[in-house]
Amino acid sequence: MSYTEPHWHHSVLITIDTQNDFTLPGAPAEIPGTMDVIPAMVELLEAYRAQGLPIVHVVRLYEENGSNVDLCRRALIENGARVAAPESPGAQLVAELLPAGAGPMQSAALLRGELQPAGDREWIVYKPRWGAFYETGLDAFLRELNVDTVVFIGCNFPNCPRTSIYEASERDYRAVMVKDAMSQVYEKGIQELSAIGVNVLAKDEVLAILNDLN
């Protein structure tokens, strides 16, 4: 028996921080390579929607006074940098990731810890620090959905995705990273994840598996 093998019928696709300010060319906090993985992310999102499997978009929001910002970035925001500010265009998810008819993010509700519906079996969650599970209701929500497998894509592997993957592992989720649907991935990081039982797959491998689900 493999305790780490994904249970695809009980999986959720989680996008991390793929917001305009971190993604679009010339954006104030652009992470190189994030725009390049948007097409792969869109393919995976469409495959999950076609299967009726849940999707969660995890985002950051930085209050303009810096009050909710990580210590390592707080001075930057306090000194006037405007990154992922609530209700700003830069805080919004990249438009291509959202299903048709999805409205804008509701920052006030998200900051209160509410999950915002974005479509059928699709939600947005705010996280206050690197990890998607830190001081959020994500774990309890996924348990309610009978999810035991988490599949990660998005922005910026060394920081928020990697932390979120380790948090998922320590909560006994079966974890998957889609290596070509995430920015800033590097070989040593792949080796480290593999060593703790994370399934590191390519986008086409995941699409083939999803296509065979019935």
From TrEMBL:
<protein>
    <submittedName>
        <fullName>Cysteine hydrolase</fullName>
    </submittedName>
</protein>
<keyword id="KW-0378">Hydrolase</keyword>
<comment type="similarity">
    <text>Belongs to the isochorismatase family.</text>
</comment>
<dbReference type="InterPro" id="IPR036380">
    <property type="entry name" value="Isochorismatase-like_sf"/>
</dbReference>
<dbReference type="InterPro" id="IPR000868">
    <property type="entry name" value="Isochorismatase-like_dom"/>
</dbReference>
<feature type="domain" description="Isochorismatase-like">
    <location>
        <begin position="11"/>
        <end position="189"/>
    </location>
</feature>
<dbReference type="GO" id="GO:0016787">
    <property type="term" value="F:hydrolase activity"/>
</dbReference>
<dbReference type="InterPro" id="IPR050272">
    <property type="entry name" value="Isochorismatase-like_hydrls"/>
</dbReference>
<dbReference type="Pfam" id="PF00857">
    <property type="entry name" value="Isochorismatase"/>
</dbReference>
